[in-house]
Amino acid sequence: MSQVNNITNELVSIRDYLRWGVSEFGRAGLFFGHGTDNAYDESRVLVSHVLNLPFDFETELLDARLTIAERESILSLLERRITERVPAAYLTREAWFAGLSFYVDERVLVPRSPIAELIAQDFEPWLSGIYPQRILDLCSGSGCIGIACAYQFEDASVDLADISLDAINVADINIARHELSDRVRAVQSDVFEWLAGERYDLIVSNPPYVDAEDLADMPMEYHREPALGLASGPDGLDITRQILRHAADHLNVGGVLIVEVGNSCVALDEAYPNVPFMWLEFERGGHGVFVMTREQLLEYADSFA
């Protein structure tokens, strides 16, 4: 306790705690990749959360003197980030995706998909100007992709599907948070297994795609996330194979499938050498996302069987 008192006596301003966080995060060798990519932003997320300030609060506040209670709360949160290797989003119970705030906890992955960029672009030119009436966010986790789609396509109905009941419960929290229960629903399903008869104009999926070797080598922060949302067999393609095999049955004529497989894109090309996957490029970073139309899925159905 005396060490805590010493630190809180010496560190009195917001700037002090941001600096201390950056120094200690660097000393501890933390990994950043769950909403931030550097120690300063990670510190700022945690400090602003305790103080109930926006992340981009005014620089004039940096030298504001903090109360003892605020100092102790900030220090406690920063130390948890160091000792427990818990991503900041789990500590604050909030993550941002496509400019929207989402509730997250250890039951779901922290949102970080480059698909947000595609949503902002109305998935053009892949939808070819077609306005999707029904959208499926498959392997939805927190529901961030599907809910962001609901904002982008204001007349569309959206299903969030995940095998994890825990994830469905988190998605329900976010549906209520965004007041979208009239157009968005969360349904439990093992890929397409429990979506019999359902058809969509757009299926978007960020499924588990980490192979066994990469999963074992991941930093501790990733092991705080549910393995069910990451692991997908020896080559990372177990779930993606199921999606490719059955997606055409759940797409309307002219429908589009978009799937993120990250680093497993190399394994996917090797697994299906005769399939010309269209790999998308992103201005804001990210890779390993492909797009296929229903017609292409049917054309290469024998390869996926």
- SSE pattern, N- to C-terminal: HHHHHEEHEHEHEEHHHEHEEHH
Distance between the termini: 62 Å
Give the biggest beta sheet.
Answer: 7 strands, mixed
Count of β-strands: 9
* Main sheet: strand order: 5-4-3-6-7-9-8
Spans of at least 5 consecutive residues whose pLDDT stays below 50 are: none
The gyration radius over C-alpha positions equals: 21 Å
Describe the protein's topology:
Blueprint: H1 2-10, H2 14-28, H3 39-50, H4 68-84, H5 88-92, E1 95-97, E2 100-102, H6 115-120, E3 134-138, H7 144-152, E4 157-162, H8 165-177, E5 184-188, E6 200-205, H9 212-217, H10 220-223, H11 238-246, E7 251-260, H12 265-271, E8 278-279, E9 289-293, H13 294-299, H14 301-304
Parallel strand pairs: 3-4, 3-6, 4-5, 6-7
Antiparallel strand pairs: 1-2, 7-9, 8-9
Helix pairs in contact: 1-4, 2-3, 2-4, 3-4
Structural features, described:
- The protein is α/β, with parallel strands linked by helices and 305 residues long.
- Helices cover 40% and strands 15% of the residues.
- It has helices at residues 2-10, 14-28, 39-50, 68-84, 88-92, 115-120, 144-152, 165-177, 212-217, 220-223, 238-246, 265-271, 294-299, 301-304, and strands at 95-97, 100-102, 134-138, 157-162, 184-188, 200-205, 251-260, 278-279, 289-293.
- The strands form 2 sheets. It has a 7-stranded mixed β-sheet.
- Helix 8 (165-177) links the parallel strand 4 (157-162) and strand 5.
- Helix 2 packs across helix 3 (39-50) and helix 3 (39-50) crosses helix 4.
- The longest helix is centred in the N-terminal third of the chain and has 17 residues, at 68-84.
- It is elongated.
- The mean pLDDT is 96.
